[in-house]
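Thread: zinc ion complex, take 2
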Amino acid sequence: PGESNGAVTSGLPSAFISAEIRDLPIKQGGTGLIKVVTQPDVKLGGILVDKPLYFFPNEDGSQVSLQGVHALLEPGVYPLRLDATLPDGSVQSYEQLILIISGNYLTGESLPVDPSLIDPAVTDPEQKQLESITITTTPTPTRFWQGQFLSPAIAYAESTYFTSRYGTRRVYLGQGTDLKVNWWHTGVDFGGGDGLAITAPAAGQVIFAGPLTVRGNATILDHGWGVYSGFWHQSAIQVQVGQTVQQGDVIGLVGGTGRVTGAHLHWELWVNGVQVDPLDWLNQPYP
Ligand SMILES: [Zn+2]
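Output below.
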């Protein structure tokens, strides 16, 4: 309800032929999809909220940018700016305000945990390592995927078999300490026991495969255009860095490695530096 295609038909500078932003308003944790048709030889950039936009040529002759909106961004009105650089170097810009609405994510009860689970001395370096892979100013220009993503648990579970959804918030309290961490769930968890097959939700290239302290045996796929999938807590990794995988290929096995209480698959999806709700990508094709 209330969703629309935000096609801009007037007020565009002459370098633009058309511009469209899909599924307005965008929810927290949503993916902004901006499709622009320009005059020939125009380079596009811009910003959504505070993130730089990267545009790539699409088969239909348009240029497309995908940008995640953070799950914790305060709902409100934020800028979308499109910058068109002409062959002579001059720049024409178009700006409008777009509405970001609540994702209605749940806040769970505060939970006391073993303080070593949330010790920033352990979690911060790993977070930085992850961000050094998934946040880049030079996204891969090839789009490896086509159409809708498939659940990585499709080999063993109904696509609705989630044990924890994206966006849930919780406070963790380090037992016997003053440690208090505002946590939020950056992906979706699928239940399922040790050794079940994890499949690639879409084609991509393996850019990380190895053990991490918190996330356990981890694999990261680069789907291109700044879109990355992460799979944590595996009992086995069955791909190597540099390998190309197709949608549905087995990439590893469900496990309980890293700092978890039981075997499950955590899948998260990064879209140009922001973890988004992966379910959106199971429900509709991008672009
Ligand atoms: Zn998880």
